Amino acid sequence: MTEAHIWQNEKLGLKVVEALKKNRFKAEYLATKEEARQRLLETIPAGASIGVGGSLTITQLNVLEELDKRGHKLFDHTDQKLSVEERNIRRRLQLTSDVFLSGTNAVTLGGQLVNEDNTGNRVAAMIYGPQKVIVVAGINKIVKDVDSALDRIEMYAAPMTNYRFGFPNPCTKTGFCSNCESERRICNVVTIMRKKPSQADITIFIIGEELGL
Q1: 117-142: per-residue pLDDT in tens?
Q2: To 10 degrees, the CA torsion angle through 59, 115, 133, 86?
Q3: CB atoms closer than 10 angstroms to residue 49
Q4: Domain span at residue 23?
Q5: What is the pTM of this model?
Q6: What is the Cα–Cα distance from 131 to 50, expressed in whole angstroms?
């Protein structure tokens, strides 16, 4: 990463952190994923149960193995060895976990979180239920506004996610969203968090590196 990239990432990150705080979220800028990993581990209370929202960003931070070693009970539904019923049980347990970890599809310069979801468990837990929510977002998730966020999801995040999991949806072939009617469609729920929900405790870490999709 060049000096110019580091400079711009910090400017953008701090701008978004300021906007998030105005929208009543807790927010911090962390320059590297190593700093973010350490801060995340520091923020999670000892003994807390942890829901995991199927986030590639969380996976890339390599925190889940460490949390497991620390004795935390993890509710992660992404294990391919689980049955459909077992996955759904873990999704429901995420809603009442002490801490819920998630990424986000996009965060605007105005401090708004924009997400599209398949089953809705991730966005539901981000909004209400867990005692504390921690959202991590790489610098690549920053967009100008809500319209740009939706464009980012449809033109990049959703097709890439479909390709990653091998889902037989049209965007896996075309590379862009066509608002399909597929039974395996993953873009079923759209949420825009304009302000922090009144009963939620949400901390957002903006990371000065590209992470996630």
Answers
A1: 999 999 999 999 999 999 999 999 99
A2: -60
A3: 17
A4: 3-105+113-142+200-207
A5: 0.96
A6: 10
